[in-house]
């Protein structure tokens, strides 16, 4: 399994560090940590910042921008190394208190099973001028769209369908015709194992030794 697939194809039940930004933003931060090149990693983080700003439009002044950089550091467990206009925050100096951020309901979600965050990410990818960074964003978006589609419809979806949806949601601005996109769909969608019942319909008894959850 590739690093991108590990970062995006398997849903996790771990607690969100900052729930107000949602799991997709958290996963984008986790994906940014896998990018080895610092310059490319910084470009990816700037795209994440724009997504965060689109979620909460009032967070656009200098103080709020600084705060979002701090939030990114916290979501990365202070491991994110990027070129930032601000000093890297220290773990001991940061004490997070969840804020009640107003949910922006001014925009209609076009596809409910994709969600508003993914649609905002598509808009941000369409504005990205760097080709390599744009393709990385497209791959991340496509992987999350594929998984969300599966959860909502209980059915798999091929690359052609996701390409068409990205083209539609980006108003024709994003081109998904590159080899990495099709390879993303070569593996099956990862599913959570479901408990199995026995023949008489009752739940199986718990065993003393079970499968250890991989972290």
In short:
The chain has 215 residues and is mostly helical. It has helices spanning 3-8, 22-33, 38-55, 62-75, 116-127, 131-153, 159-169, 179-184.
3D structure, described in words:
- The protein is mainly alpha-helical and 215 residues long.
- It has 8 helices and no strands.
- It has one domain.
- 47% of the residues lie in helices and 0% in strands.
- The longest helix is centred in the middle third of the chain and has 23 residues, at 131-153.
Mean pLDDT: 74
Number of helices: 8
Q: Bin the strand percentage.
A: under 5%
**General shape:** globular
Unreliable sequence segments: 1-13, 97-109, 191-215
Number of strands: 0
Category by helix and strand content: mainly alpha
Distance between the termini: 15 Å
Radius of gyration: 19 Å
Q: Provide the succession of SSEs.
A: HHHHHHHH
Number of domains: 1
Major pleated sheet: none
Helix percentage:
40-55%
